[in-house]
Amino acid sequence: MAVSPAVDRIYDYGTENEYPPNLYHFDGLAEGIDGFNSLTEAHVAQFHEQGYLVINHAFTAEEVQAALEGMLYLVSGQHPTFKGVMYEHKSQGVAVEDLSPEERQDYVRKFMWFVEYEDRLKAMSAHPKLIEAIGQIMGERPVLFQDMALLKPPKIGREKPWHQDHAYFELALEARVVGAWIALDEATVDNGCMIIIPGSNRQGPVIHFKRRDWQICDTDVNNQGALAVPLKPGGCLLFSSLTHHGTPTNHSDRRRRAVQFHYRPASAPKTSLEERLAIFGEEGKDVTC
Ligand SMILES: O=C(O)CCC(=O)C(=O)O
Fold first, then answer.
1. Pairing of strands 178-183, 258-265
2. How far is the CA of 246 from the centre of ligand 1 (A)?
3. 127-185 confidence digits (pLDDT tens)
4. What is the reported pTM?
5. How many other C-beta atoms can be found within 10 angstroms of the C-beta atom of residue 15?
6. CA of 150 to the centre of ligand 1 (A)
């Protein structure tokens, strides 16, 4: 493999990929509804109760293909000004610029802030049925405020430790923030699908520590009752920003590409870094990890 000189690439800071063997244990598989058109008031109530809702066949094969093409265009460096790519730590030393777009994506950990660079991805984030479903859940007009995706490449795609997304957001705790995680490949228990803890959204905020990531301490994770969320391409997991979730390492030789969008209610008050850390950080609290 060719070794490149230092280039201004951004790498995932997490080098450590060892974690307790049962950290991503799950007791069952999440079930979903078939398409956005099946959404009822009972499903909305289930979302608030359980902190998630799975929508199978949310996007068509054509919509998934368009999103994949948009993703490949951006992560392979074809857009002249897009810079939102972060590489897996294990790809350090690989001259990714010399690789084909197909090959290059398999070193990418994350790409973000992409919708303004790519109409095909923007179209997915603004899909009328997605927006309507999220609006029903929030009871208000949803506003996209973050677009970010982990690609979890075959063999080297690192875990995303357990966390609550709200720990990353400067938004009032009571704001009903909803994440949409959309599978572009089949996501399975082998290639690192989402693992969630139903009902954990009702337990309030949990302290996060900077360890292998900004995460819930491994020893604070209670994954009894956890569910894996395998999805076919075009399947979508909607989840609360307080739902505990994580994804294990992709040890398989299968891709697990996905995109993720976060929406806030239009009226959600913004907060500050200080307020966020006062809630989710360890500082000044008698906690250890
Ligand atoms: O895509 C994944 O593996 C996990 C994504 C996630 O939980 C996040 O970025 O907050």
1. antiparallel
2. 7
3. 999 999 999 999 999 999 999 999 999 999 999 999 999 999 999 999 999 999 999 99
4. 0.95
5. 11
6. 6
